[in-house]
Hints:
Number of domains: 1
CATH class: Alpha Beta
Radius of gyration: 16 Å
Order of helices and strands: EHEHEHEHEHEEH
Structural class: alpha/beta
CATH superfamily: Formyl transferase, N-terminal domain
Shape: globular
Largest sheet: 7 strands, mixed
Low-confidence stretches: none
Mean pLDDT: 96
CATH topology: Rossmann fold
Amino acid sequence: MTPRLAVLASGSGSNFQAILDARRDGRLEAVVAVLVASKPGIGAIVRAEAAGIPVEIPDQADSLAAVLKRVAPDRIILAGWLRRIPSELVEAYAGRILNIHPALLPKYGGAGMYGRHVHEAVILAGETVSGCTVHEVTEAYDEGPILGQATVPVHPDDTPETLAARVLAEEHRLYPSIIQTHLHGR
Length: 186
């Protein structure tokens, strides 16, 4: 039976699109059963509608649990989800919730470390290498077991935007590959 994914997104959905592309290209053997959006009007919804994927927009933590119960996904994939996953869901789906973070964890993780904030911190610290990390979600932000990482150089003239663009390209390559391995053990 083909594994079922619930993808949770809060923004443009570029990592969601990378998952859809990998599925279309045969690099990811899974069904995207639902896109759960944190709010109306985000780019990820447009991508889901174009791909014929159902969209749910829960208004509270209880509704997220209800959506997941209805969909019964094999994995929950966070693709730019900017809300905390309720403890009861972390427990119920232990080892089956994956996230991609735009830095090389354990550095530059935790509450408030997302998007531009991460890249600003990396540049301010004078790092010469950055990248992205796929990890399992646990109760503590960005502290779950690391499943894979990809690196990019940090150039002396980088801005948060230029660094983010290089990291995002690696996210799009890495995330579907790690999801495939996590689902199928290869």
